[in-house]
Structures are given as structure tokens and as C-alpha cells.
Amino acid sequence: MFTPKMISKPLVVLAALLIEPRCFAVTTLIDSMAFESGIAEKVEMARVSVQSDWNCSWFEQTNTHLSGYWDANLALLRGDAYQDQPDKHQNIAVLNLTPVFRYERMDKKGWYCEAGVGASFFFDLYDNNGDQLSTHFEFADHFGIGYVFDNRWELGAKVQHYSNGGFKKPNDGITWLVLKVGYHF
């Protein structure tokens, strides 16, 4: 039986996508790309991503607004305690697609904060350092801050969490600290 807690994240994402569909029309397939590196307890992550800006604006202020983008990425995880055994490694590829909301300046430069909840596919089941994810499908949510420079380079940091939302046990989750370097075309 599904509980409200189990379906809350998918409903939030769905509601966000239905708010104003014209904002999600792709005008340019790829607007930016990024490389990210993350750490969690006894696991590292490297990720390459591409973004597609929604070119939409909500809650406009004098010089700021809420906007967003699609983030598609491929991550490689390397666990250092596979099946809770020190120095035994697990390598997993993860494919992610996330709608991200970003509060930023109107010119899309300077400081920003962002949040997103998306879907991830783990090509193998995660089992590292006593933490397990029992499904290949996981939610990926994050909160982050960053800065876009005048030369279109971006530096960011975020906290990201993978979890299946309680659909199946075990569901220990993984929480990352992620650093991002990106470039806007």
C-alpha cells in the first residue's frame, strides 16, 4: 500500500512540471554543461552533466526571479567498502534526469540557490559501508548554491540525497557533498 510519504516526492515533481508547461518547451537542447565531484561516507562520485534552460520566469522581483532547467547526467560511483568489507570496491554507473528550480538574478549571473528532485537509475544495486539501496530506481534530490561569473563559468556546491522514497527496504540512502564546475554556452 502506498503511503502519503512514499508518493510525496513524485507528486511534487509532477506538480512542478504541470505548473506552466510552456516553460518546459526545449528551445535549445543544451545550454550548459558541468563536471561534478562528490563525496559521501566511503564512496566517491564523478559526474558529467548537460543542462537545458526552461527560459521561463516566476516571482520576478527588481533584479531576481525563479527559473529552472533540466539536468541530465551520468555519474560513476566508487564505493570503498562493498558489502561492508574494507578495501573491497563497488563501481556503479547512475543515469539521472532532474528538473531544477533556481532563484537567480535576471541576467542569470552572480549568486544563485537551487533545488531539484529527479529520477535516477542505478545500473547495479548499491551496497557499500553497511548502506544499501534495494532498487535500481532512486529519487535524487538536492539543495545548492553557486556563482555564475561574467565569463559564463559557474562554481557551485550542493548537498544531494539518493533514496527510493521508502518503496522497498533496505533504503539507507546516500547523502553527498558535491562540488560543481560548469560552463554556459
Please give a quick description of this structure:
The chain is mostly beta strands and 185 residues long.
Provide key terms for this protein.
185 residues, mainly beta, Porin, eight-stranded antiparallel beta barrel, two-stranded antiparallel sheet, 10 strands
Question: How many domains?
Answer: 1
At the third CATH level, what is the topology name? Porin
Coarse shape: elongated
- Percentage of residues assigned to helices: under 10%
Q: Please provide the count of β strands.
A: 10
Low-pLDDT segments, ≥5 res: none
Order of helices and strands: HEEEEEEEEEE
What is the class in the CATH system? Mainly Beta
**Structural class determined from secondary elements:** mainly beta
Q: Strand order within the widest sheet?
A: 1-2-3-4-5-8-9-10
How far apart the termini lie comes to 46 Å
- Could you tell me the strand content as a percent range? over 45%
Largest sheet: 8 strands, antiparallel, barrel
Rg: 17 Å
Mean pLDDT: 88
Explain the overall architecture.
By secondary structure, the chain is mainly β. A hairpin with a 2-residue loop joins strand 6 and strand 7 (131-132). It has a single domain (4-184), classed as Porin (Beta Barrel), CATH 2.40.160. It has one helix at residues 4-18, and strands at 32-40, 43-53, 64-79, 90-105, 110-122, 127-128, 131-132, 137-148, 153-163, 174-184.
Task: Show the helix and strand layout.
Elements lengths: L3 H15 L13 E9 L2 E11 L10 E16 L10 E16 L4 E13 L4 E2 L2 E2 L4 E12 L4 E11 L10 E11 L1
Antiparallel strand pairs: 1-2, 1-10, 2-3, 3-4, 4-5, 5-8, 6-7, 8-9, 9-10
